[in-house]
What we know:
Layout: E1 3-6, E2 12-13, H1 16-25, E3 29-32, H2 50-59, H3 61-71, E4 75-81, H4 88-95, E5 99-100, E6 105-119, E7 126-132, E8 135-139, E9 145-149, E10 155-161, E11 170-171
Antiparallel strand pairs: 1-2, 1-7, 3-8, 4-10, 5-11, 6-7, 6-8, 6-9, 6-10
Amino acid sequence: MANIKFRNTGERLEGQEKVAAFLEEQGVLYEHWDTNKLPEELRGNCRINDEQKAQILSIYEEEIKSLGERNGYQKWDVIALSDATPNLDELLKKFEQVHVHTEDEVRAIVAGHGIFIIKGSGDTGYFDVELEAGDVISVPVDTPHFFTLMDDREVVAVRLFIDPAGWVAHPFQDPEFAGTK
Length: 181
């Protein structure tokens, strides 16, 4: 279940209903998928092969298609990151820069953990959405954010796209973000 940490106050928001309500206020889609659908060998396993990635897409086909139909997503894939990922530190440095996209950034966490750091509306400032298996999030178009891993440095996520070729990170310079880490 996702938790939220507000960077400007250090306060935390916990509980699926509270988190979902806050994210809805921010225009961020949040859902929860049943991870019990996964076979035992995929639960918590972040070191998966292409066949296992295809198996995950098959298991969650109904949820993926539903989300795609509701929001215009046409393509999807599975990404797996762990200490076994070549050049993980370099990859994370690329992720850990505030940016925006011309389409939503969608992640359905299947195993492991991740954090979306999102710029909230009004006086909210930046907040961390700490995600675990089953959490699904869609950061809206033009919303300053970035994604990184938690301390375990492992995640498996389904990514959904309107157009994967057009899903490009555009840097977002924000003096408000400096010092909020």
